[in-house]
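Question (not urgent): is this output format expected?
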Amino acid sequence: MATVTYTLVSSKVFGESDSFRFEKIEVPSPLVGEDLFQYIQRQKGSFDLTLYRQLLGAANEFKEGDEIAGISAASDEDRLKARMLLSETSLDNIRKHSVFTDEQSEYIEGTTRSFQETESGKAIGKLRMKEFRELLLLSTDKEINSLLPYLTSDIIACVVKLMSNKDLITISSKIFHPLAGSLMGSKGYMSARVQPNSPTDNIEDIVWQVFDAWSYSVGDLVLGNNPVSSNPESVAKIEMALYDLLTTFKLENTLSHSVLAHIDIQAEVEKTYNGQTGMWFQSIAGTVKANQTFDVTLEKLKKYASQRKGKFGLYAETGQGADETNGHGEGFDMLIHESRKYGLWRGLKQQLNTVAFEKPSEGSFSEPWVHLNDVAGFIGPEVFRTKEQLVRCCLEDLVMGKLHGLMIGLDICTTLHMDVSLDDLDWCIDQIMPANPGYLMALPTKNDPMLSYLTTSFSDHLRIREKFGYKINDAMWAFFKQMEIIGENNKPSAHFGDPVWMYYKYRKLKGDSRTIEEIYAEGQGCIARVRERGVPIADGYGANHWDMNPDLEQEIRLLYADAKKCLWEETPAQFGKFLPHGIAISTLSKDRKDYIYHPQSGEQLSRDSIYALEILRSKWKKSIPDIQVIVSDGLNVSSIIDEGHLLPYINELNSLLKSNYTLSDDYSVSIDPLFIQHGRVRAGYRCGELLFGDSASKQKKCILHIIGERPGTMHHNYSVYITVAKGSDWNVEGKIDHDITRVISGISDTALHPKDAAKETLRILSSELFKI
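Got this back:
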């Protein structure tokens, strides 16, 4: 039988706490021709779900996320044996044995054609996985497309486990599902989602990044902003700003916009601004419980899908490891989790395709646009760490998305705490591009000024197009020629890389009668303000038009170096003394390296810390405060200890609470702030459980968890996680999680000012959470 070994990774290698042991799967040699189920029967005497999941996990290419889940192969030899068993297993048998059953898996099964419906379906079901792999490699695109309706998400994930990177590129480069009425998503086309993010949701920051993108002939699929605030009024302002750009340039039927707030918020904004919210976005997961972390249900998604009746339908983001890091691994591997997300999105796409819409200009009918973006490297080293793993993950997800019939793009990205550098990212891009993803992200530089991670820049898009010969949407190429960014010879013009030129064109379309000199002077002033807020704006280029301006390149490398310094900086010994009466506690992370590479260690409190909180709770007796302030170093202790960061927030919040009669009269704040060394967000929930848990209490209690954000911008930002729950809910271990937590992010003296963040905190406490 497959045996489980418990591997204690040496602390000399990873600095790991002794309390974290990872199971690894050893696979004794199978018999010749033996499949998974015959093997399990021989070893266990009957079907064993745990062993089934372990063997499927062991067949994966190695990733830390599977290792942490205890389903990774103990060695390359064990991985090969697991693949041998899988390769002999029929598609029909995989379909009959679900690794995990819930409403979402049943929905995927129900939206997949049965093998028994047709003779061709029966033949497909009888194929062994190794035969199915060969069929995909040797078949034409039309032949593969005829198979897709019969493929469940688990079957798709399983065949991908058996493929080499070369296999994945071969298959991905011949399957395409372009968006209706365009060539985006077609062979030879590679589009861009402009990602105009701002640390403060500043409209000027956002629109100028769009001008910037278009000045480099980048941005043909969607203008997709990640908002800091989920406040509907703030989201609406961004929606309208992006919509204004599209309508002013008469592009509202050519590309879409999307503000990546929760889908509930987008639907709320749509009620006021009918038809102006573009693509509706939602992050999705692979199981019902994992989707609850995003506060979505299958019924909610189906309801919103039924409301999308125009050209621009739905847009999703996913990423391997998200379910596991949110505590919903359910015992099966990351690849199947990811594939089930695509199965969910395929079902919703089918629902949208039943709702025809009329094109105003043509009077004909077509399918709404539905696409998905795989954010492969956003989570961190707990999922995978290396550039080779990033390439593998992107290729796996591309093939799985395309085998689900989806137009899929990639966010080829890395966090600053992974072992992937700026230069490594270029290498990864070159390895992945032959697989022809539908689109990539596009920012002025590789560094996102709000999310603090590394992704693809405008310059990367230009280099890829030059090296691989990829085109962009023909309608947008014509627009760039109309704007004189691209000349009639299809080469960059004198205005290429000049965002002020696009602003000049915008102002003229608005009827501005000023001279070009006056508009240019205004535009340069706008750029100066945007840059002052820490948002890069690219202009010009280097030796080639696809090379970034050398000065901007140097600036980004300096930011990268500062981020690495902040990330690995040890928390000072006096950390717990930054506020009066501060109580210093810690997590199970042994040191900084353990904290970064093994995030679970930063989610659990040490024994001494638990004891300290029990003492604090007993000291309160029956006078339990309503609000507990918690401060964690997080991924950037500088964001907490920098002058002008923490104290202005705390002082302003205290002042606001005292001046708010209702809050000050009814709610009290603990006078003992907690300082957690090596603390993650979930460590705050553990504090809440220990301090507020009471099985009989219906009274709401709140934690305000201040924590250092990912470094990578000039700001050294922190966030405030606001979590309110009844004492009876705090009493249930693990019940409180991200789905009920509100976040205020991007706080520093140079971004969202701490005093303004305190005002927003009070607004949430008074208006939305305490319902006063």
